[in-house]
Design brief:
- The protein is an all-alpha fold and about 100 residues long.
- The protein has one domain.
- The chain contains two helices and no strands.
- About 95% of the residues lie in helices and about 0% in strands.
């Protein structure tokens, strides 16, 4: 039983890490979106626009990938939370019975 308790708390710790990483990824995504928007506004010369367009497509691909990753992390987090809830409820009930 002690092993299950340790496992439950380890999973909870992992959830906290996932949440932190998700917040970092959201920050990076917002930064990239702002950068792409600024690139669109400040493009003057045709040659620069060509180079910028290539960079812009790469950045947009990165944004899409980050966005997809964030959605996946969120799904994993939701699933882990739903799996952890019964475990913590069980241990709460056990603690109440043992007190």
């Amino acid at each position: 039983m002690k092993r299950y308790r340790e496992l439950a708390f380890e999973l909870d710790s992992q959830l906290i890490k996932i949440k932190s990483e998700t917040e970092i990824a959201y920050g990076a995504l917002e930064f990239l979106k702002e950068l792409v928007d600024k690139m669109q506004v400040h493009s003057d010369a045709a040659s620069f626009m060509l180079k910028e367009g290539i960079m812009q497509r790469k950045l947009k691909s990165l944004i899409t990938l980050l966005d997809y990753s964030i959605v996946n992390i969120g799904s994993i987090e939701e699933e882990a939370v739903s799996n952890l809830q019964p475990i913590f409820e069980y241990f709460r009930e056990e603690d109440e019975v043992n007190q």
